[in-house]
Amino acid sequence: MKFGYFDDKALEYVITTPRTPLPWINYLGCNDFFSIVSNTCGGYSFYKDAKMLRITRYRYNSMPLDSNGKYYYIQDGDVTWNPGWQPTQTPLDFYECRHGIGYSRFTAKKNGLKADLLNFVPLHDTCELNRLTLTNESEAPKSFKVFSYVEFCLWNALDDMTNFQRNLSTGEVEIDGATIYHKTEYRERRNHYAFFSVNAKPDGFDTSRDAFIGTYSPASDPDAIRNGGCTGSVASGWYPVAAHELHVILTPGESKTFLFVLGYAENPKDRKWEAPNVINKAPARRLLAKYQTTEGADAAFAELKAYWENLLEGYHVESRDEKVNRMVNIWNQYQCMVTFNMSRSASYYESGIGRGMGFRDSCQDLFGFVHLIPEKARQRIIDIASTQFEDGSAYHQYQPLTRRGNADIGSGFNDDPLWLIAGTAAYIRETGDFSILDESVPFDNDEATCVPLFEHLTRSFEYTVTHKGPHGLPQIGRADWNDCLNLNCFSDTPGESFQTTGPSEGPIAESVFIGGMFVRYGKDYAKLCAHRGLLDKAKAAMTEVQKMEQTVLNAGWDGEWFLRAYDANGQKVGSHECEEGKIFIEPQGFCVLAGIGVKEGKAEKALSSVEKHLDTKYGIRILAPSYSHYYLNLGEISSYPPGYKENGGIFCHNNPWVSIAETVLGHGTRAFDIYKKTCPAYIEDISEIHCTEPYVYSQMVAGSDAKYFGQGKNSWLTGTAAWTFVNISQHILGICPDYDGLRIDPCVPKDFGSYTVSRRFRGAMYRIHISNPDHVEKGIRKLTVNGKEVSGNLIPITEGVTKYEVDAVM
């Protein structure tokens, strides 16, 4: 069942009913100001940091779902309705939400009145612009009222929802014409404020939630609207909001447009404080002056659209499969850009309060956006590396506003160091910019400890070398990629808090998955050493890589698949010897994509075992069989019910690992089949089962052991976006950046047909046509570049050439 459709020409997903299975959201903002908006106008806004600088309030887990946002109430006679349906939920004569790239548009009709609401964040301003156009489509004049409404958050989102004894005495606003200023806590010299304004003289206003909504009234039936209009309330303490009342008269066929601006401003850093609660309105007034006319709004919107269209031209495929085209060209890359901005911090599943930016997460996310914004990818690598410790380990998370490590979470996730090598290598392969390795980067953000970035990579590599367990495999620490696999957790008493380090004596838990990572990214580290002329170091690194590869083949092999790990007692995890959790997806995918076991035939066996034991119609499960009860030696992984999350759920994030692994073995049909099972465009028809947005990836899908098999969870902010884009763009379609140029190495189904990829790479534009006359699944037998045949499958870079016409024959 569908709840909308793709409009590929407009780069939009069109939602045709507000009653979607879950709220379906979009992200607005490219730089510092961000908003989340749902298909019913729910959501929230913040500046840079969703925890520390939250501008509007949102209530998670509320009923009805998605019940706070930026609302426009239209009171037409005795009927009050909203363009986005919520919160009044008045039945509409027509409803449509178009989620586009960086904007959302709502169109609704009721009793001959049409409302068109466009929401977007301008590229260069710290605000969200809402353009509301009202049209009288009836044959008689219409006189009605429009009420705007936003509820301000008291800045720190966590404190806002917990510290009521203080916060219910701090609300403070100021009204200046059509602009309502939210200056709560300003007298603390926080130097910032928010504002909500309209480009018309209001017929009324409210700034107190109790006055506008009512102490005991629902948002669907505000007191002010029911009682005839706003009260002119000025919030003091209690709950600050911003509401405008506008009286509108339209003749038949007439339209009128209002521009509403929700903004954020700061005083100049050198400003002298005349009084602690007097705000400097100049920054807000300068911003608002740009959006007093529709021409100003239209120009900003055109600039935003042009920005995204140019950005998405960085990788564009033309194939006969329209679903591949729309995901690769539009939605997959767009989601990668959102994960660049948000990491795992702010969505409808991540509250923006706890996690901040992840070390591992941000390194992986970089894979999906480095070709779009390489200069920002460069800075992101430096920010990430700055949270690393001198021994090579790292803070697992850092706050986006301060860029300092999150001490509450700390370190100990032993896969983290290797992801820094992975992200840096991906950046250099894309850009050819080896100079990043010479950038001076501190440890733990202490400028006294600055060393070249290359030294950070060396510490990452050496951390794994010096942290091995009894079998010679890498120690898992608190966890590896699977945060819930806590094999060093132990307790004498059931129910006690878990410890996160191994016993002081005896074996230490080990990870086969990190072993696969070390082989894969250790090779990159060795190449970087060689490029710097450190040939002895490169040779020593490859010796360690080869040693680890043999260790994985020996101690990490279970007979038909790779083991997952050894727990703190030296017991196997992910083995046929286990009662439950016999096979895990992570080592099968990552060990094979690293090349482990290919020539020995073990890779084929491992992937066959995945298909036999883990595959389902909705994707590959993370493990099987699911754990039916709690296992103290495994930690959180067995705390979930069977089929959910890490306990047998379908983690969309690591399905691409198996698909890439299949391309290593030349299995194009199988690789593409895995790709399709979790790809939103291919499962749009089962949206009533999948539930999450049909245009972006979810973190996980409930597995076959779950009651709601196939139901998606945790959409948008997931490493699935980056890894899937790497999978489809580099390993299936086969346009892969390498240190010395672009490598053409497709692996597709036999009947996929010819296709063309346009790819921006190192200042040049490549147009690559790939044909497959013999219907093979992998390999290039002829490569022609600008009319000249070249040997192999690498397009060499020619200095001064900015256009490449490439013909590749499989």
In short:
InterPro entries: 6-hairpin_glycosidase_sf, 6hp_glycosidase-like_sf, Gal_mutarotase_sf_dom, GH65_N, GH94_catalytic, GH94_Enzymes, GH94N_CBP, Glyco_hydrolase_94_b-supersand. This protein has 810 residues and is α+β, with helices and mostly antiparallel strands. The chain has 19 helices and 42 strands.
Number of helices: 19
What is the mean predicted local confidence, pLDDT?
Answer: 94
Unreliable spans: 491-506
The 3D shape can be described as: globular
Largest sheet: 10 strands, antiparallel
Q: Percent of residues in helical segments? A: 25-40%
The name of the CATH architecture of the domain at 12-309 is Distorted Sandwich
Q: Could you tell me the number of beta strands?
A: 42
Predict the CATH topology of the domain at 12-309.
Answer: Beta-galactosidase, Chain A, domain 5
CATH class of the domain at 12-309: Mainly Beta
From the alpha-carbon coordinates, what is the Rg to the nearest angstrom?
28 Å
Distance between the terminal alpha carbons, to the nearest Å?
38 Å
Assigned CATH superfamily of the domain at 12-309: Glycoside hydrolase, family 65, N-terminal domain
Structural class: alpha+beta
Sheet-strand content, in percent, reads 25-35%
Q: Can you list the strand order of the major beta sheet?
A: 1-2-9-10-11-12-19-16-15-14
Domain Glycosyl hydrolase 94 supersandwich: 12-292
GO molecular function: carbohydrate binding; glycosyltransferase activity
Pfam family, one: GH94_b-supersand
Protein name: Glycosyl transferase
